[in-house]
Amino acid sequence: MALRVVAKRAELAPMLEGRQDSRHVEYLSVAARAAGGKAARAEVPRSVHAAWEPAPNRPNPVDLLEEQAGTRVPELVPIRYGRMLVSPFTFYRGAAYLMSSDLAAMPRTAFETQLCGDAHLSNFGMFAAPDRRMVFSINDFDETLPGPFEWDVKRLVASFAVAGRDRGFDDKEREVVNLAVGKAYREAMAGHAAMNHFDLWYTRVEVEDVFAEFQHEVTAKQRKRAEGNLTRARTKDSLKAFAKLTEMVDGEPRIVGDPPVVTPIEDILRDQGLHELEDFLQGVIRSYRRTLSGDRRRLLERYRYIHAARKVVGVGSVGTRAFIMLLLGRDDGDPLFLQFKEAEASVLERFLGKSEFANHGQRVVEGQRLTQAATDITLGFISAEGVDGVKRDFYVRQLWDAKGSALIELMEPAFMRLYATVCGRELARAHARSGDAIAIASYLGKNDTFDRALARFAESYADQNERDYKTLTKAVRAGRIKAKTGV
Predict the structure, then answer these.
(1) Which end of the chain has the lower number of beta carbons within 10 A, N or C?
(2) CB 361 within 8 A of CB 395
(3) CA nearest 379: which of 139, 197, 135?
(4) CB 156, CB 427: distance < 8 Å
(5) Which pLDDT value is given to residue 21?
(6) Residue 449: strand, helix, or coil
(7) Which segments of 147-259 does DSSP mark as H helices, in order?
């Protein structure tokens, strides 16, 4: 006998209290979703993604970069430009806003996913999951926002084209790599489309599985290098950061200054009294802990604040406010380094609409939790008012937690093809969790039309990236903007 439960809305009120999800969810059959994906090819043919021509009214790339600089720490902006000027590849890493502007002028599908927003090949990496297994995933979500799935794929494929040129690969070698990204994404999406929802949710890319799959496709030298990189990543934790970044002062550990890359907090806020500063930072920690689940909040409460410093990180992020904070647990052998990183509006918002989250730190955290297979247990967010009276959003995570990045600068064509395959698969997994895998897989189809379109787009956009790099170089030489190199 079936049990039928009927409840009046008033009786459900206690259960519904505090619920914020007001979206209407429409449930369509698998056949209907697949049909919708295939039908979308008529409106946005897969071949159309190959085209790239700058719009007649395309903004000057330096204007867009300077627009971003307006909200950043003025003395750090020249460091950002200096890092972008190292090569067209490093320029590309800092030019997510430029590419978002370009993609907004192109035809787009209606298939939304939670975008990374800056899905270039250096924003993927390995790290320790909460169960301490090493996994591979996207590791940067500063620009995350819902949007057309192909925007992430295009940025990823173009990043391989740019990196291939940086490594000196010829046209054929780059084509093989570029095609590998699209193929891996398309085939992985088809696999995810056939999975049950919970099976998909539990899916993740484990580093040991990747090594096992490709062990016969790499040389002994490449395998040894990859294993060494994995070993270094396993040991990159708060204990290692403690040994590298601190020194003992009057019996207490302090973060060592190395300005402008690392600047102790007291050197930035010279007008603040020490006790007033520490009280402020304690308040920041308490506010952050409230964004964690109860069990993790209890864990973090066992750590006391010791010291903090501003730290310059990355390429595109340089100039935003990023701080590292040292906390200690049971003794000096139990350190915890947290990174507080400013979260501004995503570069996508101008073109795709504002985030549903008022706090951009929460936007980053929610996007990461939605798309990453395993997230840092300390991941949280805050909003804090600085000494200048401006309220800013931040997200929080561990500084080092067995994190490692691929050695792009040492990759040969064959190894980069394998890396492209893994990145393409992982991007598809992330998109399948947040988007309609069935519709997207149906749109992509079984042949290589989409793969080839994106490979052609990647090379055309790599040409554009080189032109933009030269434009920035000329702006520096003309004295329009300042760049600080070697930092």
Answers:
(1) N
(2) yes
(3) 139
(4) yes
(5) 56
(6) helix
(7) 149-166, 171-193, 197-202, 207-214, 220-234, 238-245
| Nearest to 377, CA basis, from 452, 258, 297 | 297
Retrieve residue 48's tokens.
Answer: 């159309």
- What CA–CA distance (Å, rounded) separates 349 from 144? 10
Contact 135, 204 (CB under 8 A): yes
DSSP tag of 72: S
Q: Are 115 and 151 in contact (CB under 8 A)?
A: yes
Query: Taking every pair of C-alpha atoms in the chain, what is the biggest distance, in angstroms?
Result: 82
When computed from its CA atoms, the radius of gyration of the chain, rounded to whole angstroms, is: 23
Distance (Å, rounded) from C-alpha 307 to C-alpha 137? 31
Cα 466 from Cα 456, distance rounded (Å): 16
For residue 338, give Cα distances in angstroms to 141, 201, 394: 17, 27, 12
Per-residue pLDDT tens over the stretch 214-233: 988 989 999 999 999 999 99
Cis amide leading into 260 (omega within 30): yes
pLDDT tens track for 153-179: 999 999 999 999 999 999 999 999 999
pLDDT at position 9: 37
pLDDT over threshold 90, residue 16: no
Q: From 395, 407, 468, 351, select the one nearest 81 (Cα to Cα).
A: 468
What are the pLDDT digits (tens) for 262-298? 999 988 877 666 677 777 888 889 999 999 999 999 9
Query: Hey, is 94 helix, strand or coil?
Result: coil
Cα-Cα-Cα-Cα torsion 20, 26, 31, 34, nearest 10 degrees, comes to -60
The strand pair at 205-206 and 246-249 is best described as unpaired
> What Cα–Cα distance (Å) separates residue 264 from each residue in 242, 307, 326, 471?
15, 8, 11, 35
Q: How many CB atoms lie within 10 A of CB 461?
A: 24
Has this prediction a pTM greater than 0.90?
A: yes
Higher pLDDT among residues 49 and 271, named by residue: 49
Q: Mind listing the pLDDT tens digit for each residue in 71-82?
A: 999 999 999 999
Contact 82, 119 (CB under 8 A): no
In contact, 263 and 310? CB cutoff 8 Å: yes
Q: How far is CA 82 from CA 91, 93, 426, in A?
A: 9, 13, 31
**Residue 370 has which token pair?**
């939605």
**∠ CA 227-229-233 to the nearest 5 degrees?**
115
Q: What is the share, in percent, of the chain residues with pLDDT greater than 70?
A: 94
User: Mean pLDDT for the chain?
Assistant: 92
Which residues, other chains included, contact 243 with Cβ-Cβ below 8 Å and sequence gap of 6+? none
